[in-house]
Amino acid sequence: MEDTFQSYSLANDEELRGRVRLLGNLLGDVVRTQAGENVYRIVERLRKGYIQLRDEENRDKRQRLLQLISQLSEAELTHTIRAFTLYFQLVNIAEEVYHHRQRRLIAAEGSELWTGSFDHLAKLYKSRDVSLDELANIISRTSYIPVFTAHPTEAKRRVIMGLLEKLYLSTRNLDRPTEYLEQQEQVEKTLSRLIQTLWKTEEMRAERPEVRMEIANGLYYFEHTLFHAVPEMLHRMRKAFVRQYGDEVNELFMNSSPLIRFGSWIGGDRDGNPFVTPDVTRKAMALQQRTVLCEYMQHIDELIGELTHSRIFCLPSDAFEVSLERDEKICAGELLEETKRFPVEPYRRKLYLMNFRLRATLHQVNGRLNGTCDIGTASAVPYTNEKLFLDDLMIMRQSLIEHGDVAASNAGLRKLIMLVKSFGFYLAHLDIRQESAIHSAAVSEILTLAKVTDSYETASETERLEILGKALESGITINPKQLSEASRGVIEVFEVIAELRDTVSPQSIGQYVISMKHEASHIMEVVLLGSLYGLAGNDENGLFCHLEVSPLFETIDDLERSTKILDLLFKDRVYAELLKSGGHRQEVMLGYSDSAKDGGILSSSWNLYQVQQNIVELADSHGVQCRLFHGRGGTIGRGGGPTREAITSQPAGTLRGEIKFTDSTTSTATLIRQFSSCRWGSPDCYRQTFTSSGMCQKQILSGRR
Question: Which pTM was predicted?
Answer without folding.
Answer: 0.84
